[in-house]
Structure formats: C-alpha cells, structure tokens
Design brief:
Pfam families: LacI, Peripla_BP_1. The protein is α/β, with parallel strands linked by helices and 348 residues long. It contains 13 helices and 12 strands. The chain has 3 domains: 53 residues, 434 Repressor (Amino-terminal Domain); 128 residues, Response regulator (Rossmann fold, 3-Layer(aba) Sandwich); 134 residues, 3-Layer(aba) Sandwich (Rossmann fold), CATH 3.40.50.2300. α8 links the parallel β3 and β4.
C-alpha cells in the first residue's frame, strides 16, 4: 500500500512537524529540546509526532527558523590548553554541562596573538549566538569591542571599564585581604604574597586587598615580598626559594593558587623548614579537580569556591540573554569564598 507520507523515514524537517501540529517552528524546536518554557503535554505531543513522521534534525534549518545558531563561543589563549596545572578545565566543565543541558553547542576558539580579530570574526560571522571571554585586564578593550558589535557576551571576571556588561566574578580583593588579616592575627608581619600579573584585573584586586590589610595594621609592605608569577607548582618552588633566601625572609606566604602553594611546600622542605611551625602558608582556589588543600601535609589553610559553578553561571547567563529571558540590564554576580583554617598556619 502506498505510504501517504512520502518523506517518512527519510529525514523530514522541522517545518513538516510544525505544519502537522499547527505550531510554530520555534515552539517545535524548543519542545524537542525539552525546554522548560514549553508545557509538558506539548513536548510529549511534539515528540510523538516527530517520531511518527521520522523527523531528522537539521541544525542549519532549525537555526534559520528560530533566528539562532544555538551555539556559544569560548575564546581563550592557546597556552591555557597546554598547562598541566590550571583551573581552566574546571571552568570549561561547568560551561559544557549547561551547554549540553540547554541543547546548545560550544565552539572553542583558541588564539595565539590577535584575540581581537578572533572576537570580531565570531561576533560578525553569525557562527555563534554569544561569547564568553576570560581573564579580563584592568582596562580591557575586548569588552567595548564586543559591546559595539551588539552580540550577547559575558565575562569571567571584571574590568574597570565605563560601560555596562555581564560578568561572573569572585571577590578577589576580599580573598587576599582575609588571608593577610588571618596571618596578621597570628602575629605575622613579614608576609609575602605570590600573585598573578597585575595587568589582570583579578590580580590587581588581590594586590589591593593585601595592601589594605597591611595598611589597616600599620604594617609596611616590603616590595621584595610581593612577587608576580604564573600560577604553577614550579613557579611556586622558584618564588619561595627566592623569598626564603632573603636576609630577612618572610614568616608567612600567601599563594594566589593552590598549585603555587604546592611549590612553596616543596621549597620549604628543601630548606629544612616545617610548614605551620617555621613557615605559615595560605592559599586561594581550593576545590579544583585533582588537588585538594585537605590532602596537603600539613593540611593547607585555603579559600574554597567552586570554579566549575562559575562556569555554569557564565553559560546560564549567556544563554538566558540569547533567549531573551533577561531584561536589558546586565547581570553581575560576585561570590565570596569560604576560608577553611587548617594546620598550615602557626603563631609567630
């Protein structure tokens, strides 16, 4: 008997399903992705019709129907993929989880030198519906560039620019202020700070928090004790060895990452020093995969906040913006991590 649906089983498109049900293509698309804005009964009705008719998704056609590519872009420096010790994987994991849940695709766009060209190309080519950028500078030109293109975007961190934009950040000023104040409370005054490069806004905020804590106790800041470095274990070893060789070495060290702290522990052991007795060490960025402050010997005092959750919020805010679920005002979220006191801090 002749089949009254000649395209059945041969990959019919979204429009045929929409026409069959008397719905718009955008409604059918959202229903097939189990979007919460579509009633459960409608989602079930669409799913049954699509199965019965042999619907085969066509990403390009769906994108044209709803006016979106259903893809977001993440732009990052190529060297971050080559780092063994980085929180980038945690951020990427959180972003990827949400992208998968919401039925989007993630376009990873690494760059070597000219990030502005990559951003401009993605923003104007309609390859993606929105963009995520990371590690903003103190005065970051990328934010104005993206704002001028009109593409939705969100920043992992903040910048001191004079235009509104959406971001997800942690209170970096408060992190170093609290860590420094803790050490001051334990009687330390020769406190070193291992920080990232202050061209990055988060590092500048941490430096300001450290100085604020020292100033509040009328303690001078020795420039020899404040070092800018990459956030790796090997850099922690090198920086700590340099600090411990000073005529008047520090009695405590603040580390901008848990990886740096691991290097400081190694350098202290090589110098015959016992952490918590001869040298106090505190750090930021616990809760990264593959490394835990509680597993250090002695256990490391550290701030604790999920970087993976920050990745989730970046993707959620961006996709909500793309889908028109947010108003015109930008969304800014700043988290304050917990500080867990462990055995790596001793009294002076």
């Amino acid at each position: 008997m002749a089949n009254d649906r000649p395209n059945q089983g041969q990959g019919i498109g979204l429009k045929a399903v929409a026409d069959e049900l008397g719905l718009s293509q955008s409604t059918v698309s959202r229903a097939l992705r189990n979007h919460p804005s579509i009633p459960a009964a409608t989602r079930e009705r669409v799913a049954q019709a699509a199965k019965r008719m042999g619907y085969a998704p066509n990403a390009r056609a769906r994108g044209l129907a709803i006016g979106r590519t259903e893809a977001i872009g993440l732009v990052f420096p190529l060297e971050r993929l080559r780092l063994v010790q980085t929180n980038f994987v945690d951020v990427l994991s959180g972003i990827s989880d949400v992208v998968t849940e919401r039925g989007y695709n993630l376009l990873l766009s690494p760059f070597r030198d000219d990030e502005a060209s990559v951003l401009r190309r993605l923003a104007t080519s309609r390859m993606v519906d929105g963009l995520i950028i990371t590690r903003p500078l103190v005065h970051d030109p990328r934010i104005r560039l993206l704002a001028d293109t009109g593409i939705p975007f969100v920043v992992h961190g903040r910048s001191d620019v004079d235009i509104p934009y959406s971001y997800v950040d942690v209170d970096n000023f408060e992190i170093f202020r609290r860590l420094a104040e803790l050490l001051l409370d334990y009687g330390h005054t020769r406190i070193a700070a291992l920080n990232s490069y202050r061209r990055f806004r988060y590092a500048a905020a941490r430096a300001a928090g450290y100085r604020a804590a020292m100033d509040s106790r009328r303690q001078p800041v020795d420039p020899d004790l404040v070092l800018e470095t990459a956030m790796t274990e090997e850099d922690g070893v090198a920086c700590a060895a340099r600090l411990l060789s000073l005529p008047e070495p520090p009695t405590a060290i603040i580390c901008g990452s848990i990886f740096l702290a691991k290097g400081v522990y190694r350098a202290a052991a090589e110098a015959g020093l016992q952490i918590g007795r001869d040298l106090s060490v505190v750090a930021h960025d616990d809760q990264l995969r593959g490394i835990s402050a509680a597993d250090f010997v002695p256990a490391l005092t550290a701030t604790q906040l999920s970087v993976e959750m920050a990745g989730r919020r970046l993707a959620e805010i961006l996709i909500d913006r793309i889908e028109g679920k947010l108003g015109d005002d930008p969304v800014g979220e700043v988290s304050r991590p917990d500080l867990i006191l462990r055995e790596s801090v001793g009294r002076r």
